[in-house]
Specification:
The structure holds 2 protein chains of 2 kinds.
Chain A: E1 2-13, E2 16-27, E3 31-35, H1 42-50, E4 57-62, E5 65-66, E6 77-80, H2 92-101, H3 107-120, H4 136-148, E7 154-158, H5 166-183, E8 187-191, H6 194-200, E9 203-208, E10 211-216, H7 218-223, H8 228-233, E11 238-245, E12 248-250, E13 256-258, E14 269-274, E15 280-283, E16 293-305, E17 308-315, E18 318-325, E19 337-342, E20 348-350
Parallel strand pairs in A: 3-8, 3-9, 6-7, 7-8
Antiparallel strand pairs in A: 1-2, 1-4, 4-5, 9-10, 11-12, 11-14, 12-13, 14-20, 15-19, 16-17, 16-19, 17-18
Chain B: H1 2-33, H2 50-57, H3 59-92, H4 98-104, H5 107-110, H6 113-127, H7 133-157, H8 161-169, H9 174-203, H10 206-211, H11 219-229, H12 234-256
Helix pairs in contact in B: 1-12, 2-12, 3-7, 3-9, 3-11, 7-9, 8-9
The chains are: A alpha+beta, B mainly alpha.
């Protein structure tokens, strides 16, 4: 059973349509990432699930119960805000205890549960501190503890890591994942950061202009993007436009590309996406193995980054990116004519 | 350059010193004179508590002082409560005429009190409220309200609305949210506003003068009346007591809340 479900949910702010008939089932106990650029409606969706706003149409259920009419304080959701929103006048202990205090939980139990939760987020000993005496990472742990101590039916995270610096972010990603697993709580988080979505989540829902464009496990969305937008927003992609022709795609320079899945016969134009790390370079003169896609290009630039190399190649006036591991192979020089090769299964037909 | 900077700093300090001198010397002189036995301020000072004894026996001044205190406290409570509620409403809700209402807050601060006092006297007389301490409280609340709203609104500008959302997501009702989250954050602002309201009322002469009935007046009115009849150093004595009290309150508040600093 899905822990949270939204179906056909729409929401407008004035003339701006923030969400347009979005339906998602959020599976029980899993971490679900709502990924999209700003203005895609992901935060709006999170706020609708939390109960800060109400949908114009459509239904939201939490654990099977329709919650359309319920205000936020009756929904039993734990929310962690982007800026943490810790109560500045309260200590760490009082912050975490807040949700229990307003529920009139017995004092002994409050103490026990706050201790437990602070243990879980590894903040024991800081109970008496005020928020302004905490580091960014500690603030985040307090915010998380405060949200989960009430044992909510769903945990909502709004851009959970965006306020942290790079090193801390990686550490907190691991932490968030560990804590979420330990508690086993259904978690929905909003992010515009593709890496965060890929590493943290069990499932990703990609939003664009208020609509759900693709949904699935991270590897599936990465390996099989459905559209140019999905391919480019989640990872890097080279996009080729051509015409479907006899089971292959004919490109502007006359070369033919075999793809994963045959383009429909009737399709006049076809768009193919290829991940840069799936491509290889070889000298132009070298023979191409049978069944491999190949196009001729010229090395325009190479960017050395220690363990890896990025080549920018010129093909038909279009820049193609190719990622290569620094394995000590022959390095292609700028101006070299080369062939770019890749396997047909890495040519993904996408919607324009 | 550097020498010029040092000279500028010195000039700045000198200026600051002069300002402080200008502010405090008259007060210090008054306080010292309240302990001088000579009613004519003869020097050298002959230390004595005679004016304080005389003050203790002066029923009119004491009564007026208590009236002032009562009116000011009542004004403070009413104006702070109403003003804080209004500021929260301005902050949280959008409604028709909000901007106009906000603009309408300012003129009462700018209109001369003489005119406000006259109009209040006429208006209160006309609708049957009449004169007296109750009319004074009404008048003072009306005067203090804009100050309270402006001061509390300034504090609210720094308020993160996510705090209220966080409280509600944790299960707090509207009232609990205001009680545990909004008000504690606002407290320094509300206290500053309350001090303003108290000062506006306690200090008020013009409007109180218009609204006082003979025999029941506030301290400023009573002092004014007394001075017209001839100055006595008892006024120095009561003024000194008031200054000490207000300094004590201010220091206590400043210790509790570092205004503008840590929240």
């Amino acid at each position: 059973m899905s822990a949270v479900a939204v179906s056909e949910v729409s929401k407008s702010f004035g003339a701006f349509r923030a969400l347009d008939r979005v339906s998602i089932d959020f599976p029980d106990g899993r971490l679900y990432a709502l990924l999209g650029p700003s203005g895609s409606g992901k935060t709006t969706l999170l706020r609708l699930i939390a109960g800060f706003d109400f949908p114009d149409s459509g239904a939201i259920t939490i654990a099977g119960q329709p919650v359309n009419e319920l205000p936020v304080e009756k929904r039993d959701v734990g929310m962690m805000f982007q800026n943490y929103a810790l109560f500045p006048n309260m200590t760490v202990f009082d912050n975490v205890a807040f949700g229990l205090t307003v529920r009139a939980v017995a004092r002994d139990e409050i103490r026990r549960r706050v201790r437990e939760t602070l243990d879980l987020v590894q903040l024991s000993g800081l109970e008496g501190r005020k928020p302004h005496q905490l580091s960014g990472g500690q603030k985040q742990r307090v915010a998380l503890a405060r949200a989960i101590v009430i044992r909510p039916r769903v945990l909502l995270l709004d851009e959970p890591l965006s306020a942290l610096d790079k090193a801390l972010r990686v550490e907190m990603q691991v932490e968030l994942r560990r804590i979420q697993r330990e508690v086993g709580i259904t978690t929905i988080f909003v992010t515009h950061d593709q890496e965060e979505a890929l590493t943290l989540s069990d499932r990703i829902g990609m939003l664009r202009d208020g609509a759900l464009v693709q949904e699935g496990p991270p590897s599936e969305i990465y390996e099989r993007p459905a559209s140019v937008f999905a391919a480019k927003f989640l990872g890097d992609a080279n996009i080729f436009e051509g015409r479907a022709d006899g089971g292959t795609v004919a490109l502007a320079d006359g070369s033919r590309i075999r793809t994963c899945g045959r383009p429909a016969q009737a399709m006049q134009s076809a768009v193919v996406a290829v991940r840069p790390e799936k491509m290889r370079l070889q000298p132009a003169a070298q023979a191409v193995p049978n069944g491999t896609n190949a196009i001729a290009a010229v090395v325009a630039q190479q960017i050395f980054a220690g363990s890896s190399l990025t080549y920018l190649l010129d093909w038909q006036g279009q820049t193609i990116r190719v990622f290569a591991q620094n394995r000590g192979d022959a390095v292609m020089a700028v101006g070299d004519p080369v062939k770019i090769t890749w396997s047909p299964e890495h040519s993904i037909l996408v919607e324009p | 350059m550097r020498r010029g900077g040092a000279r500028l700093a010195l000039a700045g300090r000198l200026y600051l010193g002069l300002v402080l001198l200008f502010l405090y010397v008259p007060i210090i002189v008054m306080a010292v004179m309240s302990f001088n036995a000579s009613p004519l301020y003869a020097l050298p000072i002959e230390w004595s508590g005679v004016w304080y004894q005389r003050l203790a026996a002066n029923g009119r001044l004491i009564d007026a002082g208590l009236n002032s205190l009562g009116v000011a406290l009542l004004t403070t409570v009413i104006a702070s409560t109403l003003g804080t509620a209004a500021a929260i409403a301005f902050f949280r809700y959008d409604f028709a005429g909000k901007r106009l209402l906000q603009i309408l807050l300012f003129p009462p601060i700018a209109i001369p009190w003489l005119i406000i006092g006259t109009s209040m006297l006429i208006f209160f007389f006309w609708i049957g409220i009449g004169r007296g301490l109750h009319a004074m409280v009404l008048g003072h609340v009306a005067l203090a309200l804009p100050y309270v709203i402006i001061v509390v609104s300034a504090r609210l500008k720094a308020f993160d609305p996510h705090l209220e959302e966080a409280a509600r997501s944790l299960g707090a009702s509207h009232l609990q949210t205001i009680r545990y989250v909004t008000l504690p954050f606002l407290a320094p602002g509300v206290i500053a506003a309350a001090l303003f309201a108290f000062a506006v009322s306690f200090d008020q002469f013009v409007i109180s003068y218009f609204l006082a009935v003979p025999g029941v007046s506030t301290l400023p009115v009573e002092i004014y009346t007394a001075i017209r009849k001839g100055f006595t150093p008892e006024i120095n004595a009561i003024s000194t007591i008031i200054i000490c009290l207000s300094m004590a309150v201010l220091l206590a508040v400043a210790r509790q809340y570092k205004f503008g600093g840590e929240r």
